[in-house]
Specification:
The structure is a homodimer of 188-residue chains. By secondary structure, chain A is α/β, with parallel strands linked by helices. Chain A has a single domain, classed as Vaccinia Virus protein VP39 (Rossmann fold), CATH 3.40.50.150. Helix content of chain A is 31%, strand content 26%. Chain A contains 5 helices and 7 strands, in the order H-E-H-E-H-E-E-H-E-H-E-E. In chain A, strands 3-2-1-4-5-7-6 form a 7-stranded mixed β-sheet, with helices on both faces. In chain A, helix 4 runs parallel beside helix 5. At the A-B interface, helix 5 and strand 6 of A face helix 5 and strand 6 of B. Strand 6 of chain A pairs antiparallel with strand 6 of chain B. Chains A, B: It holds the Pfam family rRNA_methylase. Chains A, B: GO terms for molecular function: methyltransferase activity. Chains A, B: It comes from Secundilactobacillus odoratitofui DSM 19909 = JCM 15043. Chains A, B: Keywords: Methyltransferase, Transferase. Chains A, B: One of its GO terms (biological process) is methylation.
Chain lengths: 188, 188
């Protein structure tokens, strides 16, 4: 058994947390892999809110969701994740959220996530997160602008009150090409 | 399900790696928890080599091993782990090793592990490690001298060739009292 990649470990952590019927967030739909993973866990009685600023990502994901019979429980939203609050009721709880920070693989590398909007969205997810719930951030930072976002996110999560949240960092530290690492924030 | 502590996650990683009949190393016997964990995994046909410089730690662990019927497969060695090579045949393979860096809880806080001897022992374990095997280091560093050892170990493992080894770091980053973190080195 090999050590899991950051991306794979994010799924390992979320799987036992998410129950059928839950509301969860895919803050960066991208290639839709996480959206489909989440849709399978929440089931037909649950709800995935998936955000992306690129229509092409949403269209491709919508097609995959239809093919896998999971379109019903997913709301794909063509808006920045910093506006997440507009799509949740004030007292609505979520059990999980996933972020993939960086750019959409195989797409325009100048369209990237940015610290300010990422932190707004993270803050919103944490305020809706139920006890035991997890927000997972897979941080790609090898691209231009990636280092700044990585630093800002790390600074933010390191300051989360340890009585309210556990903040785990998981990543490989001997690789030449900066592989993504995982930050997992769990509400106690 | 809560996020696992570094110590607990070291066991989660090692459990599927270690088979009955394997030879494994407990480089820092201490309170014996890891020794007993390893003894259970290798079984009567396997072998645990357990090192400690404090006789009291070995005596206490010997007693626990007898009580749990696992004394047969454990060799407790009153020697520094930097001399590990004296106890392994040159071509002997190990599937795992555990280090707890720092001091023995509840004991003399001035008897601590040190960078130089830790790195010698680590080097020896890696040279005997079979493919897929894991060396787990649980790094306590809140005590005097801990920061220097932590830095030396991190520098060393970050330089391991990524084609030969994967080096994972796992730890909590928002806690005031420096909790231990885990380094897991797996041979590819």
């Amino acid at each position: 058994m090999n050590l899991e990649s950051a991306l794979s470990y994010s799924h390992t952590l979320l799987k036992p947390i998410i129950q059928a019927g839950d509301t969860v967030i895919d803050a960066t739909v991208g290639n839709g892999h996480d959206t489909i993973f989440l849709a399978g866990l929440v089931g037909h009685s649950g709800q995935v809110l998936g955000f992306d600023v690129q229509q092409v990502a949403l269209d491709e994901t919508a097609l995959q969701l239809q093919l896998t019979g999971q379109a019903h429980q997913v709301q794909l939203i063509h808006d920045g994740h910093q506006n997440l609050d507009h799509y949740l009721a004030p007292d609505q709880q979520i059990s999980a959220a996933i972020f993939n920070l960086g750019y959409l693989p195989g797409s325009d590398k100048t369209i990237i996530t940015h610290a300010q909007t990422t932190l707004s969205a993270l803050d919103c997810c944490l305020s809706h997160l139920r006890r035991g719930g997890i927000v997972a951030l897979v941080v790609y930072y090898g691209h231009e602008g990636g280092e700044a976002e990585k630093t800002a996110v790390l600074n933010e999560v390191q300051q989360l009150d340890q009585h309210e949240f556990q903040v785990l960092q998981y990543g490989f530290i001997n690789q030449v090409h900066q592989p993504p690492f995982l930050i997992a924030v769990q509400r106690r």
